[in-house]
C-alpha cells in the first residue's frame, strides 16, 4: 500500500482550504480534485469546527478506480475527533482523484490499488503554520500506523490490535481488526 506522506497543494477560496487538493467553503480545487466541484460551505468544512475556528485532518483509505477516481473510501483516522472532519472527507470522495505523485509518496495509485489519502482542513486558508502543524500531526500518525499494519500483515494480530488501541483512533482499530479477521 502506498501512503501519502506530504501534501503541499494549497489554494484558498473564501478563506478555507483543505490540503491534498484543496477545499474551500464554495469550491474544491487542486490536482487531486476532479472538475473543481462546487460545494456548499457545510459540505467542505465541519460547521462546528468552522464556528470554533478548529483546523483538523482526516485520513481515508481508498481504492483507485478508473481514471484515477478515488472510490470505496473508509475513514482511518481524524483529528481532532468529534468535529466531523472524517465525515466531511468521506463525503468529498466523489470529487477526488489520485493523480499527484508528490502526495502519494512518489507513486500514483493504479486502478484497484488501496492507498491512504490525507485531507487537511485549515479554516483560514493556506498558511504555513497550519500546514506545518497538520503535516506534523499526520506524519506522527503515519509513523504509528505503519508498524501496526506490518504486525497485522505478519499475522501478529493481538499485538497489532493492542498497539492500534493505544493510537486512540477507533476507526483505525476497526480496520486492523477487520484485516486480522480476514487472516483467520
Summarize the structure in words:
The protein has 184 residues and is an alpha+beta fold. The protein has one domain. It contains six helices and seven strands. Strands 1, 2, 5, 6 and 7 form a five-stranded mixed beta sheet that branches. Strand 5 (56-64) and strand 6 (70-79) form a beta hairpin. The two termini are 21 Å apart.
SSE layout and pairing:
Elements: E1 2-3, E2 17-19, E3 22-23, E4 28-29, H1 41-44, H2 47-51, E5 56-64, E6 70-79, H3 85-91, E7 114-122, H4 128-153, H5 157-167, H6 170-183
Parallel strand pairs: 1-7
Antiparallel strand pairs: 2-7, 3-4, 5-6, 5-7
Outline, from the CA principal axes?
Answer: globular
Query: Which sequence of SSEs, written as H and E, runs from N to C?
Result: EEEEHHEEHEHHH
Total DSSP E strands: 7
Report the radius of gyration as a whole number of Å. Answer: 16 Å
The low-pLDDT segments are 1-30, 35-41
Quickly count the helices.
6
> What oligomeric state do these chains adopt?
single chain
Span between termini: 21 Å
Structural class given helices, strands, pairing?
Answer: alpha+beta
* Count of domain modules: 1
The biggest beta sheet is recorded as:
5 strands, mixed
As a percent range, the share of strand residues is: 15-25%
Question: What proportion of the residues is helical, as a percent range?
Answer: 25-40%
Amino acid at each position: 500500500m502506498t501512503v501519502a506522506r506530504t501534501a503541499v497543494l494549497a489554494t484558498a477560496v473564501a478563506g478555507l482550504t483543505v490540503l491534498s487538493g484543496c477545499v474551500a467553503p464554495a469550491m474544491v480545487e487542486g490536482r487531486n480534485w476532479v472538475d473543481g466541484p462546487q460545494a456548499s460551505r457545510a459540505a467542505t468544512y465541519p460547521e462546528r469546527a468552522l464556528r470554533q475556528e478548529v483546523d483538523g485532518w482526516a485520513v481515508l483509505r481508498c481504492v483507485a478506480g478508473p481514471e484515477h477516481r478515488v472510490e470505496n473510501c473508509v475513514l482511518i483516522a481524524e483529528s481532532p475527533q468529534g468535529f466531523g472532519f472524517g465525515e466531511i472527507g468521506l463525503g468529498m470522495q466523489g470529487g477526488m482523484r489520485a493523480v499527484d505523485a508528490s502526495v502519494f509518496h512518489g507513486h500514483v495509485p493504479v486502478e484497484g490499488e488501496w492507498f491512504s489519502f490525507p485531507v487537511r482542513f485549515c479554516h483560514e486558508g493556506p498558511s504555513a503554520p497550519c500546514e506545518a502543524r497538520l503535516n506534523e500531526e499526520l506524519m506522527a500518525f503515519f509513523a504509528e500506523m505503519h508498524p501496526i499494519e506490518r504486525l497485522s500483515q505478519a499475522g501478529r494480530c493481538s499485538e497489532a490490535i493492542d498497539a492500534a488501541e493505544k493510537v486512540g483512533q477507533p476507526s483505525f482499530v476497526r480496520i486492523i481488526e477487520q484485516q486480522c479477521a480476514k487472516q483467520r
